[in-house]
C-alpha cells in the first residue's frame, strides 16, 4: 500500500504519486462490493486526489450512501477498517480508518 499515514501531531508531505489514483480505484472497488446498492457516489478527495501538488500520504475517500443504517460495518471491519462512528457532531458524517494506518 502506497498510502501509509502520518504519525500523530506530525505533517509529512510527499511529491504527488500517480499510483494514489490506482489505490483509490482498488479501495473504491472493495467498498462497492460491500455496500453495492446503498452507494450513491464515491469520490477520491483530499490532497492525494490533486495532481502535481505535494500531499500528506493519506488516501481520503468520501462515500455518499442512501442509508446510514444500511452501512455494513462488519464487512468493512473484515477488510481492515475500524468504524469510528459519527463525526463533526453530525449523524450524517461517519468515519472509517484503515487498521494499522498511523494517524
TrEMBL record:
Name assigned to this protein: GrpB family protein
Cross-referenced InterPro entries: GrpB/CoaE, NT_sf
Pfam family name, one: GrpB
Naturally occurring in which organism (per UniProt): Lachnoclostridium phytofermentans (strain ATCC 700394 / DSM 18823 / ISDg)
